[in-house]
């Protein structure tokens, strides 16, 4: 029995065009599982901005990658002999793996069957669950749980056409906020205008982008990029405003060249509240988050925008698209249509 | 009738030793007040770190100072003919002024008589009210209202021997927290050790200061300095920890040379919550704050540490002491003992 994996051949190249050099596809023999181990098949892989950090070898909430390690990725997977059970977790860029349920380090979480049933009721695909977990939850935690956005408030969202940004836009529009989205691409502007006629879109690549928002006028900023844009947005915030921090890669392609934040004093003067947001927020909040999101889907206030690839080896290509900002919405590697073992 | 004022002669000199050059004492004739105006006498003046920003000419929540403007300062003042009424507000570095009660821009707030009575019951001086408002309230808002510190939690406080720091230390000790204070001066270390035997003190001027706190071990950080120390403390924070931001001047003597904050990504990964804290937090919270603080005074869990000067013209000397970090606790210019008009 064999599996394919993508391993780290070379740490984060500076030039995105050379990204392929970081990855190496290998074919490995997989031993037959002992009674304690489940043979798992990876079904869907999430392509996320944080992968840039992982392939740089930095330590995050996951262990730092060494050369030849299987590269981290969040996936949905199932036991080969029971496709009805779905597990979520950082199982990595591999088609199959042996899972020791008793090893808590692997941190796979079995998705409750009830949740899968609700998904189907909402006419959502199983692959959508990955997007809901990794991007819908942060959007909810940031805007609904932390910022507590209200009708009429001005809400600004950066990387508006990204996977998390699209959730944010829809949640804020559904709440009847005055929603402003940042994007830097003509195609994305057209797409957003078509999909969300009430959304105000600002092209942040224009010189005067920040002039288009009055200082001290924003109640809530959902920040997917950090750095320079965060600094500018601090000027735009109202007193007692809230900033959900959900991304810090900014526009720099190199993880080690990030800029600092130099206007902390305004955070004090304006009594701003900031919170770091990740999908794995306080566990006791997950149920409320899913309830809220599923209700939005049922009321047709939420749609998922996904772009799919079908081979493990598509990952470098998909990642390059993500890092260049060419994608709209979520990128998923869908391995569910591959030949079975 | 005459008054004395300190006006801005020259914007923020880089060298603290040349600070006197920023100030000029002038003597002005004061017109007899019309019926709408109250002739006010300044009784106590607060000497605060933010004065460094004001004399730099920067715009804060108060208007930017121009040359020859009376320099901003928070004061307690009384009508000359009614010393029982006390007003709080940014009346500036002047011995007397005409106050138009109908002009909301001046923003003086009449201190409720009930509060003055409670002060006296706690055996506190009227001048202490200025310290409670400007330093006790931020300590309360940061640690009690925002961080919600609990028994056993690790709480770290920078500028521990400063006016706000001393309130923070006492509130956290009273809550039976594991309290760590930063200071950079041998005299202050001795003072803190004598006053608070359970306090752990770290001299941040030692090379290994940050090694004395394990990474990911701090529940709450009350930040009075920002910059480099804030950056280091972000490493020390536990997941879901809270940081009260109450000062951003750091160790740099020049307002324009402040450093940026470069590890925002850790704020995200750890899901930290940050909030800018000022004494003039949400107005509806003031009563609860005073109730809490007065109870602490009555239970002898709070004491006020004040250093007093007696002439308006002592301000540059007092400020230099503050900026050099030579003071312990609050610095007040007490004009209440001056000859009456």
Describe the structure in your own words.
- The structure is a homodimer of 341-residue chains.
- With 341 residues, the first copy, chain A, is of the alpha/beta class.
- The first copy, chain A, folds into 2 domains: 2-124 and 304-334, Quinone Oxidoreductase, Chain A, domain 1 (Alpha-Beta Complex); 135-276, Rossmann fold (3-Layer(aba) Sandwich), CATH 3.40.50.720.
- Chain A contains 9 helices and 15 strands.
- Chain A has helices at 51-54, 113-121, 126-146, 163-174, 186-195, 227-236, 264-269, 286-298, 315-323; strands at 2-8, 23-29, 37-47, 75-79, 87-89, 96-100, 109-110, 154-157, 178-183, 200-203, 218-223, 237-245, 273-276, 306-309, 330-334.
- In chain A, the strands form 3 sheets. In chain A, strands 3, 4, 5, 6, 7, 14 and 15 form a 7-stranded mixed β-sheet that branches.
- In chain A, β4 (75-79) and β5 form a beta hairpin.
- In chain A, α3 crosses α4 and α3 crosses α8 (286-298).
- The relative contact order of chain A is 0.16.
- Residues 251-256 of chain A have low confidence and may be disordered.
- The interface between A and B is medium-sized, with 32 and 32 residues.
């Amino acid at each position: 029995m064999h599996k394919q994996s993508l391993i780290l051949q070379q740490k984060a190249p500076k030039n995105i065009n050379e990204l392929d050099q970081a990855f190496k596809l290998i074919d490995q023999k997989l031993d037959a599982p002992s009674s304690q181990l489940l043979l798992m098949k990876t079904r869907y892989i999430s392509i996320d901005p944080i992968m840039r950090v992982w392939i740089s070898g930095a330590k995050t909430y996951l262990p730092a990658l060494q050369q030849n390690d299987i590269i981290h990725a969040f996936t949905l997977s199932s036991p080969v002999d029971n496709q009805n059970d779905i597990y979520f977790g950082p199982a990595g860029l591999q088609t199959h793996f042996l899972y020791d349920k008793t090893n808590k380090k692997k941190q796979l979480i079995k998705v409750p069957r009830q949740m899968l049933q609700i998904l189907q009721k909402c006419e959502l695909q199983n692959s959508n669950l990955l997007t809901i977990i990794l991007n819908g939850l942060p959007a909810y935690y940031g805007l609904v749980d932390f910022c507590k956005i209200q009708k009429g408030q001005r809400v600004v969202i950066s990387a508006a056409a990204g996977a998390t940004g699209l959730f944010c836009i829809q949640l804020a529009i559904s709440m009847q906020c005055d929603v402003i989205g940042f994007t830097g691409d003509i195609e994305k502007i057209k797409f957003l205008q078509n999909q969300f006629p009430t959304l105000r879109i600002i092209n942040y690549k224009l010189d005067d982008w920040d002039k288009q928002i009055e200082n001290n006028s924003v109640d809530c900023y959902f920040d997917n990029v950090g750095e320079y844009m965060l600094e500018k947005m601090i000027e735009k915030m109202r007193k007692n405003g809230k900033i959900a921090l959900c991304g810090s890669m900014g526009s720099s392609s190199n993880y080690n060249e990030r800029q600092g934040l130099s206007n902390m004093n305004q955070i004090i003067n304006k009594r701003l509240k900031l919170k770091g947001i990740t999908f794995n927020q306080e566990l006791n909040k997950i149920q409320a988050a899913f309830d809220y999101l599923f209700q939005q889907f049922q009321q047709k206030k939420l749609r998922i925008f996904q772009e799919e690839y079908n081979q493990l080896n598509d990952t470098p290509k998909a990642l390059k698209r993500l890092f260049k900002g060419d994608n709209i919405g979520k990128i998923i590697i869908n391995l569910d249509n591959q030949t079975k073992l």
